[in-house]
Model the fold of this input.
Amino acid sequence: MPQLDDAAGVKAHYLDEGTGPSVVVLHGGLETADDWAFLAEALVGERRVLRPERRGHGRTPDVEGPHTYEAMAEETAALIDQVVGEPVDLVGFSDG
Done:
């Protein structure tokens, strides 16, 4: 189910599916959470799969300021802290 959350100042859209140990799937540049639907479908029977969309990608609006790896890491960590609240496994591609 799509959701919105304030992750380090960014209203981040993310998909949250399944139950079990959490895995966060990070898309690459110019992609969206939808590009990882195939992986979510494969994992959702055994894992809780979160697919956030980065600032300016998909359904997450852009924000003022530069796009930096440090900012993306802070936003991802904030989302994990707020939504999951415990360590997760990460899967990423390119900028993810």
Summary: The mean pLDDT is 89. The two ends are 21 Å apart (CA to CA).
